[in-house]
User: Fold Menaquinol:cytochrome c reductase iron-sulfur subunit from Paenibacillus endophyticus.
Amino acid sequence: MSNHEQHETAHRPVQRKEMSRRQFLSYTLGGTTAFMMGGAVLPMVRFAVDPLLEKKGEGTYVKVVEESKITNEPQEFKFKIHQIDGWYVSDPELAAWISKDANGKIFALSPVCKHLGCTIGWNTKGQNEYDCPCHDARYTKDGKNITVAPNPLDEYEVKLENGFVYLGPVMPNTRTS
Ligand code: FES
Assistant:
């Protein structure tokens, strides 16, 4: 290196890679915004997902009627269930047709027709059968499908306790297989 070049190098200002004011502001504001968004969004995500992770109250029975009121003739009883579906809580009213069989055993049938879901009634045509008003499906007292519907009426799980009939979840008919 010549003397002239050495002299120039000595007087050239050192070039540092410094952050510009604009970059500094971008990083600072970006970081702060991300931090604040995280604080706001995370609780919302948790609120949305939490109920889905909770266990549903399975196997819950509802007290419906005194055992002494049940006869061989099917009768309709209404009852409410407390339902939690994710974050949606409701108390829908359900119905069941409850009767005793020839052995005195109490059983309960769902009123939902297995054809397209209309509500059946007992003995509306004087034939001691369940009838559906929509397309004339008919079922025996045990819920066995006679015409139109492809399957028997569903049954409720039944529990007898302290002289009362309790109903649980709906299950496929056990009396007609
Ligand atoms: S819905 Fe009951 S017969 Fe069609």
Summary: The mean pLDDT is 86. The chain has two domains: 3-53, 62-171.
